[in-house]
Amino acid sequence: MKNAKFLSLAAACLLFTTLYSCKSNNTENAVENKTDISNNTLAQVKTLGFSTDNIRKVEGGYLVEGDIFLTEDNLTEVSTDANLNIAETEQYRTTNLVKSLPRVITVSVTNLPQVYSDAVNTMISRYNSLGLRITFQRAATGSKGNIDVVGFNEGPSGGFITLGSAGFPTSSGNPYNQIKMNTNEAAYGSNPNLLYLASVIQHEVGHCIGFRHTDYMNRAFSCGSSGAGNEGKSTVGAVRIPGTPSQPDAASFMLACSNGGNRTFNANDVIAVNYLYK
Questions:
Q1: Which residues make Cβ contacts (< 8 Å) with residue 141, sequence separation at least 6?
Q2: Which segment of the chain is annotated as a signal peptide (predicted)?
Q3: pLDDT for residue 262
Q4: CA-to-CA distance for 254 and 5, rounded, in angstroms?
């Protein structure tokens, strides 16, 4: 998930050079130029229905659409799901979902301040209140959960800052096993707000269990910039969830960019989550 609050900073930087010169040097995952990524890889990403705008090579794979992590294995997976649609503005899921339901998914927090741990507890309460066939609980002390929440440190770049990132379920039906949360002060401030953190973690868990961005077709809807990217047509990887709206949904927890505050499930999100997991 991204936050667009740095647009004014980026505009100021234009007085001196390009947007990308505003990127902080204090990064854990170095950003590589798109030219450093092979044409074959770019083609595979496009085939899966993801944008290659601002694609980044990171440790273990590629970061696309701001907060979605794709592994090398993801790039070669072939969908067997025939119910594929060109994205509009409805809730969308990936072709992979969590299987072996009902199921308890454990969540751990590694080397992060207490407020991140408290935010994970809030996220767990939000999901569990829906009565789904997947439930969440904290992993035993000292053990790594099915999803481990870890930190990285990266400043703003190109008018945006990455708040967190995650991947999609495996082809075997397991949730993606890691959420990365940005500990840079530019992301959440020196005293992170609990509900803000919980909302971002809730969003990233959505990816871990198979949700795409609600504004998949055009992330400018939530990111507020035409540079946010249009995903275009998809052959695999975006399946419309029946019963979700055909108009933009400004309050959805799966919008690509954060509103900078508390955002939990709205009525349409509940329809989408229930359809998949209740």
A1: none
A2: 1-23
A3: 94
A4: 18
